[in-house]
Write a structure and sequence with these properties.
Layout: E1 13-14, H1 25-32, H2 34-38, H3 43-61, H4 63-70, E2 74-75, H5 81-91
Parallel strand pairs: 1-2
Amino acid sequence: MTGGNYRQPQFTVSWPTGEFGGMGLEGSVKLGYRDELASIADPRERLEKYEAMVAQAYERGKALNTGMNFGFDDTIDPAESRAWIAGTLKAAKSPPVRSGKKRPFIDAW
């Protein structure tokens, strides 16, 4: 949950089944290793190599592995999700009271 700000999230957790990568893991293998895969002439051998690379990407991208590198607060049991969210909402500061309008003007271009 980011609380409206991705620079300072309230907390960062994942379920153990979470998968992390810069994009879809299959797509990242296809793009990142395009030349290496294209150099394999036999289609069956190319598919086996591709599937092995995707399996490695999934292993590296598991939440339990990625959490150690990217500083998650925790990898939680899905059953604990409600408690994490409720606890964070209780601990969150109330927004400051506004003395004026939320938006000083309406852009009507």
